[in-house]
Design brief:
6-stranded mixed beta sheet
Length: 296
């Protein structure tokens, strides 16, 4: 894996964060201040598990906010197929027509979980998404450039998006006082994650880093989602001062104690479909499956 290229832009995108307390997830609205072009990264579709109800009110409000600001939404990006919340990508595509982008290796994740759920409508080729990005791909956000970095480890398909002086890392890294992503999902690997993290930490120290979640570690009372490369290098509790082997040992021992995320089964069924519901049965109803004894 090569190191990232030197900075593509010196300009700073405008970043607005929307924290979903139910899933501890952050949705980002990122825009180019010069042109008003905008992206939404890692949107959340609210889901009430006991009633199996989805709720797009927060996404509707976000779309209205985009309109009120006079922004031009050119796309929706997911950093990976999330296992802890339903992606709002498809709902936003329906509302706005904005295309959905994700890392090209999503096909591997679709194969794994499409088979698990016997989702015969899911073809493991990423075609349900509109844009599939490989490592090093770039595209324009107004006068800014978006660079796609393949940062696997949490899942084999994770990507980070570097835009100007900011990078959006999904679940690869959390705030320095919380650490790093788990690696025990199918295709995850702690050693691979360590190397992806080193790639991100090779970015300039002043790079703003936006994380996908905050779980409020003990001793902190306010939720946070923005840090810097310098802060991660200096004080991330899983990385700072650790060798690769030490990190792997710590990560694997910690992962062995973790339970599956509460929404893993509905999330993955939806997210391998870009956030869309499964197709209706003959009755017209749609169902999410619960494969018994299938998740360790």
């Amino acid at each position: 894996m090569t190191l990232v290229t030197p900075p593509l832009d010196i300009a700073a995108p405008d970043v607005e964060a929307y924290f979903d307390a139910a899933t501890h997830t952050v949705t980002y609205l990122v825009s180019d201040p010069a042109t008003g072009q905008a992206l939404i990264i890692d949107p959340v579709l609210a889901f009430d598990a006991p009633s199996a109800h989805t709720d797009s009110q927060a996404l509707t409000a976000l779309v209205q906010h985009v309109k009120d600001k006079g922004l031009n939404l050119i796309g929706v990006l997911d950093t990976h197929a999330h296992a802890d919340h339903l992606s709002g990508a498809d709902a936003l595509r329906v509302m706005t027509g904005a295309p959905i982008g994700i890392g090209a290796r999503i096909a591997r994740v679709q194969k794994t979980f499409g088979d698990l759920f016997e989702a015969t409508d899911v073809t493991p080729d990423g075609s349900v998404f509109d844009r599939l990005y490989d490592d090093g791909d770039t595209f324009a956000l107004g006068r800014l450039t978006v660079e796609v970095l393949h940062t696997p480890g949490h899942t084999p398909a994770c990507v980070s998006y570097r835009i100007g002086d900011a990078v959006f890392v999904g679940d690869t890294l959390f705030m320095p006082d919380y650490g790093t992503a788990r690696c025990d999902f199918p295709g995850g690997d702690a050693r691979t994650l360590y190397r992806s993290i080193q790639r991100l930490l090779a970015l300039p120290d002043q790079t703003r880093m936006f994380v996908g979640h905050d779980y409020l570690p003990q001793g902190r009372t306010d939720f946070r989602w923005e840090t810097t490369v310098a802060a991660q290098k200096a004080s991330n509790i899983h990385i700072a001062g650790r060798s690769e082997d030490d990190f792997v040992a710590l990560r694997e021992s910690r992962d062995a104690t973790l339970k599956p995320p509460q929404l893993i089964l509905p999330s993955l069924q939806m997210n391998i479909r870009a956030g869309a519901l499964p197709p209706p049965e003959a009755s017209g109803r749609r169902f999410l499956k619960t494969p018994l004894n299938a998740i360790p």
